[in-house]
Amino acid sequence: MSGHSIYEPQSSFMQWLERRLPVASLAYSSFIAYPTPRNLNYWWTFGGILSFMLGVQIITGIVLAMHYTPHVDFAFNSVETIMRDVNYGWLLRYLHANGASFFFVAVYAHIARGMYYGSCKEPREVLWILGVILFLLMVVTGFMGYVLPWGQMSFWAATVITNLFSAFPVVGDPIVTWLWGGYAVGNPTLNRFYSLHYLLPFVIAGVVVLHVWALHMVGQNNPTGVEPKTEKDTVAFTPYATAKDAFFIGLFCLFLAWFVFYIPNYLGHSDNYIPANPSQTPTHIVPEWYYLPFYAILRAIPSKLLGVIALGGSIVLLAFLPWLDTSRVRSASYRPLYRQFLLVFFVVVIGLGYLGSKPPEGGYVIAGRILTAYYFAFLLIILPLLGLFEKTKPLPNSISEAVLREGIPIGASAPPPSSGGRA
Amino acid sequence: MNAHRSIVVALALAVSVSAPCLRAALAQEAEVPPPQRWSFAGPFGLYDPEQLQRGFKVYREVCSTCHSLKLLAFRNLADPGGPGFTEAQAEAIAAGFQVTDGPNDQGQMFQRPGRLADHFPPPFPNDQAARAALGGALPPDMSVLAKARGYERGFPWFIVDAFTQYQEEGPDYIHAILNGYENPPAGFTLPPGAEYNKYFPGHALGMPKPLSDGQVEYTDGTPTTVDQYGRDVAAFLAWASEPKLDERKRLGFQVFVYLIVLIGLLYFTKKRIWHAVKHHPELTEPRPPTEYRRS
Hints:
The complex is a heterodimer.
Chain A: H1 12-20, H2 23-31, E1 35-37, H3 46-67, H4 75-84, H5 89-116, H6 125-147, H7 152-163, H8 172-180, H9 187-218, E2 234-236, H10 237-262, H11 292-300, H12 304-319, H13 321-324, H14 336-356, H15 363-389, H16 399-405
Antiparallel strand pairs in A: 1-2
Chain B: H1 2-28, H2 49-61, H3 87-95, E1 98-101, E2 110-113, H4 127-133, H5 145-148, H6 157-164, H7 169-178, E3 195-196, E4 204-205, H8 226-241, H9 245-279
Antiparallel strand pairs in B: 1-2, 3-4
């Protein structure tokens, strides 16, 4: 990985700046010359998509905050004013609301890719843990954002979720009162959620810097899970990774535009267009779709306290994945058993998501318990044991060899470069 | 492998256990509103101004007796993508409403004819007054009603809807409610003051049947039936709740054309850049631009 180009300022101004603030060489080595494995597939573009979505959310959010009123009497109507009277307010709000959903689409794809290709393993443990922290921050930020329009679902989601803390003995009730800023969800709650909803995205941006820093220390994993060994195994970040990322970000924008322009309320709940009413509980209180798997885990456990612990544990356990997964082989491509158990795990999470949207009665409860059991069994039993007993396939000696096996000649004698060189 | 198979069995079991429960749950729910044809459905569907004008007439003559429309201003009636009233017509409509203003120089609130900038005045001064006048029932504000109502689509329809762009649950539901009044089936006990409606969850609706055939006069030859009134007023309420729909879909089309061209260019750019890596690795040596030199 040595020998990639380094930045040398040529113009006298850039030389002057480089001696005082080497920001240009930092950007150059991080985003241009940074060596990236040549065999990355499109699942690796979700990191770029996530940075892009964070930018979209912050920009639309800052403008929305200019027009929003964080007060229980005005919040709902101020959102409607944005929709009706602010120039392109409908676009900003639909982008922000659907953007949150797509932020989670991207983060789930990003996490799934990390699990599939073993990206959490040595030496990327800190990188992975920072990722779990980012996910937790996103969950909290998204939840607080959902409360701001102050519709029925906003209010009751805030009530249900904050009440989870009351499950803890002795400290529970004081914590809930402290979170609310009163004895019920009310104006102080809305105000602090607004304040934190504005703050946390910048905390996320800060942790993203650490996440990228950690990434650049250890380098990217790749579909083979074999570390790059020679220069032949890598290509420069720019133009190779940037071109690939740009193409996929474009596709992702098209996907987002489908929702924003044509089905903007598809992912929302119609009850959230009813102003919050503390004296009227909706028939079914459901969180946003991206929390449904965790909501299903919460409800699968009969005891409230254990349910809350399972809910928290289902996310926190992910931080321990580098040690729960005992296999020395990273990529699921070379771990036939792990691959099957992992794909079932993904199906189970989707199944939990479906059950989370259903009322907790009858067969849904039983199904929820079976799937919850698998969720934890996979992380706590199957993963540690698999590493000990699984017979893995032989690993390629290098990335280049793996690519060669797929029929693309690497370093083979090539015809002299013709002008253009199009496919 | 055995472990894997047993997981599949467990999953299948989970699904089969929940399926009958799903059917039982559906049987207890209200009837599914029949889908209507809406001019504003689909990627190119826009509001029909004539239908919105008819719907506004129904709202003004019937619904507005009890239901407020607080978030709408009279000026909105002349907005592009709306009912298509001229500004003069919207002014005349506004003048037909009495709006509370004040306090004046004497410190008194007073009534005056509405202006374009005024919002639709509510029929009752507050919720308590509405409840007192209507036997305890509170008619909801209609500004975002078409987005605040819907019904459970269920699997697999909620997935299909994402592709067919079905967003008209609210208007379908409103139309169905207006046409859903029936005599209660034998054995169904209605609470006092309620009427039976087959589409209303729980079936006991506090609103008496508001519309009957021929009640509102149409001047354009459109049939004056409850079915037609329901469709027109639901379309009007859809506009009231989503007044920027026309603008949204027009911009959406432009964004789609732009993005598809951009994605095409990005794809061929990417392909060209990667061509060398895949076929001529010796060409991947970085060619230093002016600012950079290879170490």
